[in-house]
Design goal:
Length: 179
């Protein structure tokens, strides 16, 4: 039976700008080479955020857990200016490594959560209170955490101040939207 124009496509179709990635009924199918490139880009993005003085940086491997992306990079920023500069550096890194930035909110005023969506890799840069509120690392708690440290370095501690939680907050700090 022939498909009518109102019916969805049934054949896999390549995602624009992402060689080796096809959509199959809502699931992602990437070649091993594309997965390796995405993993390397996620690790490089974490290192870039670290170089920009972001804190509590995590790289989560979501392959087999998410139909949307393969890797999350999550970090906390210290100020609006630093977060936006870090986001711009990640965009530049993506261009260098031939990853297309499909969506971002870098120009959104007063954003406390910046999202840069490269399809295979999604980078999140939070203000600490917003990060605690949304708690993506708990939501994806079963995901493997990748070591993004450089050779010869150890992974930075998630939180240096023991009186603060992993998002950098103390128990009595106010959360956004709950006042």
């Amino acid at each position: 039976m022939a498909e009518s124009p109102d019916q969805p496509e049934t054949a896999p179709r390549s995602e624009p700008g992402l060689p080796g990635v096809e959509r199959h009924g809502g699931t992602r199918a990437a070649s091993p080479e594309q997965e390796a490139r995405a993993r390397a880009f996620a690790i490089d993005a974490a290192r870039c955020l670290h170089d920009d003085k972001c804190t509590d940086i995590l790289v989560l491997d979501l392959r087999g857990r998410s139909q949307i992306t393969d890797f999350f990079v999550i970090a906390s920023g210290t100020s609006d200016r630093q977060m936006r500069a870090s986001g711009q550096h990640i965009d530049d890194l993506g261009r260098e490594q031939q990853f297309t930035l499909h969506r971002d909110n870098l120009r959104e005023p007063d954003a406390t959560w910046l999202v840069l969506d490269f399809v295979d890799v999604v980078v999140h840069v939070f203000e600490p209170q917003t990060r605690l509120f949304y708690d993506l690392e708990m939501l994806w708690g079963d995901a493997e955490r990748l070591d993004w440290s450089r050779p010869g370095e150890s992974m930075p501690a998630v939180t240096a101040d023991p009186s603060r939680n992993r998002a950098g907050l103390r128990p009595d700090d106010e959360l956004p939207g709950l006042s």
